[in-house]
Specification:
Layout lengths: L9 H21 L5 H19 L1 H10 L3 H10 L3 H13 L3 H14 L18 H7 L1
Helix pairs in contact: 1-2, 1-6, 2-5, 2-7, 3-4, 5-6
Length: 137
């Protein structure tokens, strides 16, 4: 039997999600006023950061199994900001507090500043309908 290779790993999903969040932050900065698209963008940022935070433990499980505790802890510390920022963004969006949302979007942009999204990306607009998903979740 041959080895099964998971081509859709948590790390790959995290990379794609960080690129999509960086793109959403850029699009949110271009918005003028509170529109349905702006709500979708902010909701997508919140949901994406929470998805990244949820995948951290599965990413470090292999390192911990091999005894690389320091590497696992550093990785957790590197992404420790994602879950609190996601919950703040979610509560600000549900409270319709756009001043707080803009501050949180700038914080996310600074933390994801090294993420490069090519001009001809194939991400599309993954934030469409994110506000409805956020309200259900």
């Amino acid at each position: 039997m041959s080895r099964i290779i998971n081509t859709d790993s948590t790390g790959k999903q995290r990379t794609q999600m960080t690129k999509a969040i960086a793109l959403a932050v850029r699009q949110l900065s271009l918005q003028t006023g509170v529109t349905d698209e702006a709500r979708d963008l902010a909701a997508f940022i919140a949901l994406g950061l929470q998805a990244i935070s949820d995948g951290i433990d599965s990413s470090v499980a292999a390192w911990e199994k091999r005894g690389y505790w320091v590497k696992a802890d550093r990785f957790r510390l590197e992404w420790a900001w994602a879950s609190p920022l996601a919950s703040k963004m979610r509560s600000a969006l549900l409270a319709d507090n756009w001043a707080e949302i803009s501050v949180l979007a700038v914080d996310a942009a600074q933390r994801l500043g090294k993420v490069r999204v090519s001009e001809h990306h194939r991400l599309g607009k993954p934030w469409r309908g994110a506000f409805a998903r956020l309200q259900v979740a």
